[in-house]
Design goal:
Blueprint lengths: L5 E7 L6 H14 L4 E8 L6 E5 L2 E5 H4 L5 H12 L11
Parallel strand pairs: 1-2
Antiparallel strand pairs: 1-3, 3-4
Helix pairs in contact: 1-3
Length: 94
Protein backbone atom coordinates (compact mmCIF):
# COMPACT_ATOMS: atom_id res chain seq x y z
CA UNK A 1 0.00 0.00 0.00
CA UNK A 2 1.23 3.48 -0.88
CA UNK A 3 1.69 5.48 2.33
CA UNK A 4 1.79 8.83 0.56
CA UNK A 5 -1.41 8.73 -1.41
CA UNK A 6 -1.85 11.06 -4.36
CA UNK A 7 -4.34 13.89 -4.62
CA UNK A 8 -6.24 14.42 -7.86
CA UNK A 9 -7.55 17.89 -8.63
CA UNK A 10 -10.03 18.65 -11.38
CA UNK A 11 -10.38 22.32 -12.30
CA UNK A 12 -13.46 23.01 -14.38
CA UNK A 13 -15.40 25.95 -15.79
CA UNK A 14 -18.64 26.32 -13.81
CA UNK A 15 -20.02 28.81 -16.35
CA UNK A 16 -19.66 26.12 -19.04
CA UNK A 17 -21.78 23.70 -16.96
CA UNK A 18 -18.97 21.20 -16.47
CA UNK A 19 -19.42 20.54 -12.73
CA UNK A 20 -21.44 17.34 -13.26
CA UNK A 21 -18.80 15.99 -15.65
CA UNK A 22 -16.09 16.75 -13.07
CA UNK A 23 -18.13 15.16 -10.26
CA UNK A 24 -18.75 12.02 -12.34
CA UNK A 25 -15.04 11.69 -13.10
CA UNK A 26 -14.18 12.25 -9.43
CA UNK A 27 -16.62 9.49 -8.41
CA UNK A 28 -15.14 7.08 -10.97
CA UNK A 29 -11.58 7.80 -9.81
CA UNK A 30 -12.45 7.45 -6.12
CA UNK A 31 -14.19 4.14 -6.81
CA UNK A 32 -11.36 2.75 -8.95
CA UNK A 33 -8.45 3.99 -6.81
CA UNK A 34 -9.93 3.54 -3.33
CA UNK A 35 -6.55 2.42 -1.92
CA UNK A 36 -4.38 4.76 -3.98
CA UNK A 37 -5.85 8.25 -3.65
CA UNK A 38 -5.94 10.59 -0.69
CA UNK A 39 -8.69 12.68 -2.31
CA UNK A 40 -10.17 14.03 -5.51
CA UNK A 41 -10.80 17.76 -5.31
CA UNK A 42 -13.15 19.70 -7.56
CA UNK A 43 -12.06 23.27 -8.11
CA UNK A 44 -14.21 25.79 -10.00
CA UNK A 45 -12.00 27.82 -12.32
CA UNK A 46 -12.29 31.53 -12.90
CA UNK A 47 -10.81 30.96 -16.37
CA UNK A 48 -13.52 30.23 -18.94
CA UNK A 49 -13.29 26.91 -20.74
CA UNK A 50 -10.86 25.32 -18.31
CA UNK A 51 -10.99 21.58 -17.65
CA UNK A 52 -7.66 20.38 -16.30
CA UNK A 53 -6.82 17.25 -14.31
CA UNK A 54 -3.81 17.13 -12.01
CA UNK A 55 -2.23 14.32 -10.01
CA UNK A 56 -0.55 16.13 -7.15
CA UNK A 57 0.83 19.16 -9.02
CA UNK A 58 1.36 17.50 -12.41
CA UNK A 59 -1.09 18.17 -15.23
CA UNK A 60 -2.14 14.84 -16.71
CA UNK A 61 -4.94 16.16 -18.95
CA UNK A 62 -5.78 19.62 -20.23
CA UNK A 63 -8.90 20.10 -22.38
CA UNK A 64 -7.47 23.12 -24.20
CA UNK A 65 -4.20 21.36 -25.04
CA UNK A 66 -5.96 18.17 -26.18
CA UNK A 67 -8.91 19.91 -27.84
CA UNK A 68 -11.38 17.57 -26.13
CA UNK A 69 -12.45 16.06 -22.83
CA UNK A 70 -10.82 12.88 -21.54
CA UNK A 71 -12.66 9.60 -21.88
CA UNK A 72 -13.10 8.03 -18.43
CA UNK A 73 -11.12 4.95 -19.50
CA UNK A 74 -8.25 7.18 -20.66
CA UNK A 75 -8.36 9.24 -17.46
CA UNK A 76 -8.20 6.11 -15.30
CA UNK A 77 -5.16 4.93 -17.25
CA UNK A 78 -3.43 8.31 -16.85
CA UNK A 79 -4.10 8.33 -13.09
CA UNK A 80 -3.08 4.68 -12.70
CA UNK A 81 0.23 5.35 -14.49
CA UNK A 82 1.05 7.97 -11.83
CA UNK A 83 -0.35 6.42 -8.63
CA UNK A 84 -0.12 2.62 -9.05
CA UNK A 85 1.44 1.49 -12.35
CA UNK A 86 1.00 -2.19 -11.41
CA UNK A 87 -2.78 -1.86 -10.96
CA UNK A 88 -4.95 -3.88 -13.35
CA UNK A 89 -7.88 -1.76 -14.52
CA UNK A 90 -9.78 -4.73 -15.91
CA UNK A 91 -12.06 -3.61 -18.75
CA UNK A 92 -10.49 -0.12 -18.76
CA UNK A 93 -7.19 -1.68 -19.88
CA UNK A 94 -8.68 -3.39 -22.94
Amino acid sequence: MNLLKATVRITYCPKCGWMLRAAYMAQELLTTFVDDLHSVNLEPSEISGRYTVFVDDEIIFDRKREGRFPEIKELKQLVRNRVNPEKDLGHSDR
